[in-house]
UniProtKB/TrEMBL annotation:
The keyword Iron-sulfur does not apply. Keywords: Porphyrin biosynthesis, Transferase. Its EC number is 2.5.1.61. This is Porphobilinogen deaminase. Monomer. It catalyses: 4 porphobilinogen + H2O = hydroxymethylbilane + 4 NH4(+). It is an enzyme of class 2 (transferase). Belongs to the HMBS family. Its cofactor is dipyrromethane. The porphobilinogen subunits are added to the dipyrromethane group. It holds the Pfam family Porphobil_deam. Binds 1 dipyrromethane group covalently. Residues 6-214 form the Porphobilinogen deaminase N-terminal domain. The lineage of its organism: Bacteria, Bacillati, Actinomycetota, Actinomycetes, Kitasatosporales.
């Protein structure tokens, strides 16, 4: 007996299709079942407004989740950083596969690095988090840069550099790797001054909570350490009561010598988009072995950041 194909709901963007295609192949291998891609248009794909203005949180995800809830598709692949932190009861995060490079990168004209950009360089990014950290970095070094709000898919954003409209754009390394444009990167931005968005570089594979067999099969793709890291990062975001368009960066990584992992470190940052004020803190604890432990790590850092005034920096929106 041949089982029917599993339907994977996906956005149409090149990045979404690349991510979904890779996951589809893995699911075919794991389940022996055919997988078909079902294309779904989301509000985030059709709106021309800036993400920060339409509220950001979940615009890419809502239409996929509605298709899941209606049973039109069996599972969906999201960029984890685009997922709102609240998990709907009827859906389950069946797998968080091993993470790609979580860092942000620069694509600049003439192969320039951040430190070599000319005075007054125009750097495109629609992300308040990237603006805040770029501007803070520039202030500390007395570089004069102008952050210019842009949006659109990855190709569109890189296009602003090729057309000469902008000197550089900031993008996630993972997305460029997935669509095969990593060779255009001119500088990798160290997380020492540019913490990525919570969950950046990781994927989330989601299905209906009622579909226990499928959830279990998809669960074979889960990487527990990636899941622990992104759970801690998202717990920080949730405890700060911020969304994906807030100026919040976070990165959890493992500390230890060689193969002996000893601890998880969680770094977090909140700032004003002009970079004049940043609250940047780090906490370290045992590697979380449960969901609750990972949540606790994020909450602990959040309370330290709130005690240092983080709340006052988050109301602000990019213009
Ligand atoms: N918000 C758009 C988005 N969602 C996920 C990625 C990149 C891939 C990832 O971080 O997993 C991007 C593009 C970007 O920020 O450059």
């Amino acid at each position: 007996m041949t089982e029917r194909a599993l339907r994977l709901g996906t956005r149409r963007s090149k990045l979404a299709m690349a991510q979904s295609g890779q996951v589809a192949q893995e699911v075919r291998r794991l389940t022996g079942r055919p997988v078909e891609l079902v294309e779904i248009t989301t509000y985030g794909d059709t709106s021309r407004e800036h993400l920060a203005q339409i509220g950001g949180t979940g615009v890419f995800v809502a239409a996929l989740r509605e298709a899941l809830a209606r049973g039109e598709v069996d599972f969906a692949v999201h960029s984890l950083k685009d997922l709102p932190t609240a998990q709907p009861d009827d859906l389950v995060l069946a797998a968080v596969p091993p993470r790609e490079d979580p860092r942000d990168v620069l694509i600049a004209r003439d192969g320039l690095t951040l430190d070599r950009l000319p005075d007054g360089a125009r750097i495109g990014t629609g992300s308040p988090r990237r603006m805040a950290q770029l501007n803070a970095y520039a202030r500390a070094r007395r570089l004069r840069v102008e952050t210019v709000p842009i949006r659109g898919n990855i190709d569109t954003r890189i296009g602003y550099v090729h057309s000469g409209e902008l000197d550089a754009v900031v993008l996630a390394a993972a997305g460029l790797n997935r669509i095969g444009r990593a060779d255009e990167v001119t500088d990798v931005l160290s997380e020492d001054f540019m913490l990525p968005a919570p969950g950046q570089g990781a994927l989330a594979i989601e299905c209906a909570a009622s579909d226990a067999d499928l959830a279990a099969a998809l669960g074979d793709m889960d990487d527990p350490l990636t899941r622990a890291a992104v759970t801690a990062e998202r717990s920080l975001l949730a405890a700060l009561e911020a969304g994906c368009s807030a100026p919040v960066g976070a990165l959890a990584d493992l500390l230890g010598e060689e193969e002996v992992v000893t601890e998880m470190r969680l770094r977090g940052v909140v700032g004003t988009t002009d970079g004049s004020t940043l609250v940047q803190l780090s906490t370290t604890g045992p590697v979380p072995t449960s969901h609750g432990d990972a949540i606790a790590l994020g909450r602990e850092l959040a309370s330290e950041m709130l005690a240092k005034g983080a709340a006052g920096l988050m109301g602000e929106r990019a213009h």
